[in-house]
Specification:
With 71 residues, the chain is mostly helical. The protein contains 3 helices and no strands. Helix 1 crosses helix 3. The longest helix is centred in the C-terminal third of the chain and has 25 residues.
Length: 71
Amino acid sequence: MKITSIIAFSLVIIGALVWLLVGIFDFNLVAFIFGSGASAVVSRIIYSLVGISALWLLFIWAMYHPFKVVD
């Protein structure tokens, strides 16, 4: 499970950097590398992996760091 979390964390960081490029420079690095149009399937797979990784990290965080009421 540790290696899965490391991979998920890496993908989420990469995804965040891609969104930073889109937000600041209007440059989509994933579309630039993997193309758009007919090859957009690869881009969709990458975006899906980043989203699943974010959900995985939320799940791990909720399991090991639940909300606690501080007295």
